[in-house]
């Protein structure tokens, strides 16, 4: 049962970083892709149908970690409390920016919330970089882990931004599409996204091996209750996600959301 619980935790963590990492990356490069208000609305439209659904995966990761791996949760939250605090702030600021930018029809208002979207996206990406960097270095919570935090933050910024550019190249049209494709590389939109996705998968798997969560799993009775329930709910979550992606599979041509 422990192996299944570990696989479920890895699956949802990977799902969030692949899906959520794309819209976070788009938020990071919003000023580059959108030079005018209309272009920025077009870029926001590209991620608008997905970002809340993608965040469900992160909520699931937190729930699984708390229920099935309480010892691991305590270690991570204690050792990486500053990084997770910044991540939470960035998450809230980014979502506020996306939700509020279109509530008032004034240029200054929209620019302010666009700035919030960009700032929040960078905070989320950098925070994840610190978390993953310290995990990979085996220095969670240690005073000498500053080098791992800095290296992880820099690597995550580059990876998330590249992942977002590749996703934007698949979703956008017109000038923003040309900017995204030119920055992401000309090996092809799908191939570029496949490369960034592969790198994220390698990082997540390496972090999982480094953490070795099997030794921090809950007692067998708790796992026997939690794991079957998660396995029942997961197909419905995946079906809803797939349906959302199918409905909004076409490239964005008009700024119609937020």
Short description:
By secondary structure, this protein is an all-alpha fold. The chain has eleven helices and no strands.
Please write out the topology.
Blueprint: H1 2-28, H2 30-33, H3 37-47, H4 51-68, H5 70-79, H6 81-100, H7 107-137, H8 146-171, H9 174-184, H10 189-211, H11 220-247
Helix pairs in contact: 1-4, 1-7, 1-8, 1-10, 1-11, 4-5, 4-11, 6-7, 7-8, 7-10, 8-9, 8-10
Describe this structure in words.
The chain has one domain. It is mainly α and 258 residues long. The radius of gyration is 19 Å and the shape is globular. It has 11 helices and no strands. It has helices at residues 2-28, 30-33, 37-47, 51-68, 70-79, 81-100, 107-137, 146-171, 174-184, 189-211, 220-247.
Number of helices: 11
Q: How would a textbook summarize the main sheet? A: none
> Radius of gyration from the CA trace?
19 Å
Oligomeric state, counting identical vs distinct chains: single chain
Q: Structural class of the helices, strands and pairings? A: mainly alpha
Kindly report the average pLDDT value.
90
